[in-house]
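Appendix B. Chain record.
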Amino acid sequence: MIDDNMVKQIYARAQRKLFVNNLALSLANREPGDALKVQGGRKYHKPIIGFSQMQQYTPLTATASSQNVATENEELIVDRASHAESIHINIDDTEKAQLRDQDLEARYGDDLGRAMKDSIEKRWVSNIVGINTIGSDSDPVDFSGSNILDVVEEGLGLVDTSDVDDLQRVLLIGPREYRAIERATASRESKLGDATFVNGFPARQFMDALLVKSNNLPWKATLTIGANPTDGDTVTVNKTTFTFKTSLGTTAGQVKIGASASATADNLLAAIAGTGTVGTDYIDLGLTDKMHLRRNRRVAGTNASGVISFTGFGDVGTASSFTSTSNKWSAQVKSIFFTAVGATDLALQLDDGLEMSRPKPMTGEAHFTRLSGVTLHNSKTFTDGQYMTVPTVVDASGY
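Structure tokens predicted for this chain:
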């Protein structure tokens, strides 16, 4: 039986993972969260004051009613119905006895806290937007070789147009872009200096900006299944391979070929998301593949007559082996961001402690305890932050 003392230890461990090395908490403006916590509300108001104007001075006529500038107002709403997320984990009540030589509190707490941290980071990066952009889904940037320094110079130059005088500029990139920058600057005079945020998130200095690495940046791709796959054709997403079969066997990742290309695409999406009917539409994935696809990368898609629009987070690699040439990947892109610390606002509230429940087991099922960490969070890039943020779409087809 899982006791209250074990739950407290798991929660304490989860809190450490949630707050330490948290990208969103390092870079976001957290005033909305503080305001909601103090006021106990759900809506954060951010006024845009009438900006200052300069003109030639004429005695006694410096101020006139016609020169008043209206004040605008923007809001960030955090609602339990639409913005709360429960991160839960099931603990077999017999494991404490079976694995007494293991530090179960640390294992469960670390995993739970890491999932809660990723949830907040993914919500935050999904709401980073800017007035200026570099690249597009149809024309992404080649972020490699000698192109890198030109792209970085252009991106930071656009950030500087908003006069971010005393704010720290940031280049928010993924692991692959990070390594590409290190290769491009190897044996050059541009040196990368180490830096660390107060909550422990590591960064490096590059071109007068913080070089911050995250594997939670938005990713998109299109998979066209124009013709029904042949038995044995494969699709790989984030190192997980799905094999199309006319008749399902027992191998994890097999996908049933449907009556049409679109029906097969539906079965593939069901296999990725864990929906549909296991054993009929597909053979379910193993635990590790589920974690990497559904939780870490959050790969999801929508099917429109065999054309699947995928979304996800991070360096998601893809591959395929189709008999028909009409079936292929395209438009594989990922977003990176040139911005400044505090440009995107974050409101975060945590429920006190962990929710614990013991669902009644069905016949033959193990007795387990479910622990849930609940986070209530939302973020927004207000207009002032959009002027100092430059989303950049890079080519991810080689990932």
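Further analysis of this model is presented in Appendix C.
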